[in-house]
């Protein structure tokens, strides 16, 4: 079973998503929430896929909401009313695995959930052209990690310097690789140099091992 969470504040559309998921035997709806804060307060398990609206009440929405969920490794599928290029590019850049508009039919949403749960990506054909035209966009945290990679730091060293878990570093590295198409650290180092992301200077207070 693929576990799914819905973060959507519009009750009618949220009800439609619930019906589509409940009608699909392979999917198990574990939580519905109307905001990121609501989701965090009520989520008891880690869902395989989070269906996320970009325009939410509370203090977090848009690309910030995507990044907040994707950074610890949650697979985010955006289903939004916005079909603007900036919204699509920003959401994918923040770590969303897929993007659909609310005009998508239920069967396409289910296909997207399945693709994202399997580790893939899904963007509707009408929106995919936006990504082909857009330059590679890394978040500030991803640039910081890329700098450290270019300096020769290991994932554990990066985690220590940034005071985050190794698992979070791995999640960021996966997103950097997905965005850039570079799989090896040597290729990532070359990308950092070519992009002007200079190697991070070693922390002078760090004790060498």
Write the layout of secondary structure elements.
Layout: E1 2-7, H1 11-22, E2 27-33, H2 36-42, E3 49-52, H3 62-70, E4 76-80, H4 85-93, E5 98-101, H5 106-117, E6 122-123, H6 125-133, H7 140-150, H8 155-162, H9 166-180, H10 185-194
Helix pairs in contact: 3-4, 7-9, 7-10, 8-9
The averaged pLDDT comes out at: 85
For the termini, the CA-CA separation is 45 Å
Task: Characterize the largest beta sheet: strand count, sense, and whether it forms a barrel.
Answer: 6 strands, parallel
Tally the beta strands: 6
Order of helices and strands: EHEHEHEHEHEHHHHH
Rounded to an integer, what's the Rg over CA atoms?
18 Å
Count structural domains: 2
Which descriptor suits the 3D outline?
globular
Please, what is the CATH homologous superfamily of the largest domain?
Answer: Response regulator
Major β-sheet strand ordering: 2-1-3-4-5-6
The level-1 CATH class of the largest domain: Alpha Beta
DSSP helical segment count: 10
Low-confidence stretches: 200-209
> Per CATH, which architecture of the largest domain?
3-Layer(aba) Sandwich
Q: Could you tell me the strand content as a percent range?
A: 5-15%
What helical percentage do the residues reach? 40-55%
From the helix content, strand content and strand pairing, which structural class follows?
A: alpha/beta
In CATH, the topology of the largest domain is named Rossmann fold
In short:
This protein has 209 residues and is an alpha/beta fold. The chain has 2 domains: 2-133, Response regulator (Rossmann fold, 3-Layer(aba) Sandwich), CATH 3.40.50; 140-194, Orthogonal Bundle (Arc Repressor Mutant, subunit A). The protein is 49% helix and 13% strand.
